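Problem 3 from the worked examples.
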Amino acid sequence: MSQQSGRGRAYWTALVEEFWAGPEMTQREFCRRRNLSYRSFGDWVRQLRAEREQFDSLERQFVEIEVPAAHAPLVRVQLGRVTVDFETLPPPSWIAELARYGGS
């Protein structure tokens, strides 16, 4: 890929992205306003468009799936006929309170 005045990929990528995001104008007008080589700019537009299309086609090959997490309580307290599940370790005072009222 030709490089105008030793400018590299990051420079051209920024310009092409500015062109794509900016107000509608021709490549020729964009290059004239920024004093760019029309041929070099066009080469970079083609290369970056091809890379984007290749990436987009690869992205479409993957299917996102959600696997539900197995839900199991960290702590299960059973007092008589009452069972209480906790996802996190409860404070000991809660367990004592449950024990006090669980028998009634």
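Problem 4, a separate protein:
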Amino acid sequence: MADENKKPRYRNTRYLSLIIAIVAIVVAIIIWLWPISPPPPSDFSILIDPMLGAIQAGGVIQTTVSVMGISGYDHTVSLSATGQPSGVVTAFVPPFGEAKPSYTSSVTINVDKNVPAGDYTLVIKGTGADGKEHSCSYTLTVKPSVTPTPTLIITPTPTPKPPEINIIDSMESTMGWYTYKDDEGSSINRKSILGRTGNGIEITYDLKEWGWVTLNKRIDPSILSEIEGIRFFYKGTGKPNTIEFKLMYNDGDEYNGIDTTFGFLINAATVKDDWTQVEVPYDMLECWWSDKSCDDNPRLYLNKVRKIEFAFSNRPEDGDVYGSGRVIIDDVQGI
């Protein structure tokens, strides 16, 4: 009797082992046949911001193009523009020479006074060294140039020719502008708001005693060789603190090198109710940093400049009052 009771248990165990083996084989086949998604291909993308702008015939407008690498894309990418009508010229500044993703490029669009009014679509194309191409569109609205109303002049006098304006940055967008702060707890934020002409960049900050914050951007040194200095416009509220304007080299690698700095400062100047113009001729810039660079050669070499910077600092001995403030900067131009 005992032997007969054992046999069914043995058969049940054998069947269970067989079922487990079959299930394991089926699972292995499913895993083997299941498709494995390949990683995304190496590529790049291109973005323009802002995507549209309006300007009178005879004017200049700017936008910013950003190139971003995808999945380790490491080829040079060059930029070009098509679709612009006769009389519209585009210039990309920077990159300098060959540039690999990711980077940003300021696009300056010069519109001749004879360009007909209307909407035009400019196609900005990025071409990789491996042949890949991507593009984005910018809508340019050209408005008729304003014809001045004639006035009666009793004694005719020659009208002086207005000075040519070299646009360094119209401050229409925050693209390409980066912020930094001290390690003492000061804070800074930046955004694009309505400015003096078009948009401007608003900087809000809270300075600790002896604290500082900065806003800077890369610049093409070839622009500087055509002018004699820098002009910018600003207005601000809050606690009065110092404005520092700087031109800087890259003496080492792009992020870790010692930046030789030439600067000009205005103490307790951040509070201005109305738009205020500041002109800084090159001969007003002094070598500030580093001690070795300033001792060895304190002269400013424009072809070495790679960065433009605005700083807001607290200097109690010069009448500054630490605390929060707000400054809007617009229309950075050459003089």
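Solution to problem 4. The chain has two domains: 43-143, 166-334. The radius of gyration is 31 Å.
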